[in-house]
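Q: I'm building a small set of examples for a reading group on sequence design. Run inverse folding on the following structure and report the sequence directly after it, with nothing in between.
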């Protein structure tokens, strides 16, 4: 029982860390009520990824609490990589201020990362170019 309590505490700390990380990243680009919008999308998706159908943890839910609800899941897989079981909300057009219902989709973290991969690659390249230009590097092509 002591080890399960210890794991719940670690899960709780991880969940708080992930929630803060999401809030810190470009928060100024999102609407003021983003948390409410995001929660509504995840609830409407019944806490399942709308891409792959995988069940995901509810906000604030410990991994052990999640596993108690989903006996069919491999506990070792869930404990070894808990972020894979977080449900996020993707902006399909990659514009955080556009929160129209047709632009939002609940996705597990892996599906969201795959969906955004090309966009992130282009953004990194553009940001690198801007940083070089800021320091006097000219762009030839």
């Amino acid at each position: 029982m002591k080890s399960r309590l210890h794991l719940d505490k670690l899960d709780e700390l991880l969940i708080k860390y992930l929630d803060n990380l999401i809030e810190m990243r470009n928060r100024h680009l999102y609407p003021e009520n983003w948390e409410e919008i995001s929660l509504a999308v995840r609830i409407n998706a019944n806490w399942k990824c709308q891409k792959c159908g995988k069940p995901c943890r509810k906000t604030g839910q410990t991994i052990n609490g999640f596993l108690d609800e989903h006996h069919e899941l491999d506990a070792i897989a869930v404990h070894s990589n808990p972020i894979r079981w977080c449900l996020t909300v993707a902006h399909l057009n990659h514009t955080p201020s556009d929160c129209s219902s047709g632009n939002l989709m609940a996705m597990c973290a892996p599906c969201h990362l795959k969906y955004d991969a090309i966009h992130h690659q282009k953004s990194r390249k553009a940001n690198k170019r801007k940083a070089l230009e800021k320091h006097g590097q000219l762009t030839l092509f």
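The CA atoms of residues 14 and 20 lie 10 Å apart.
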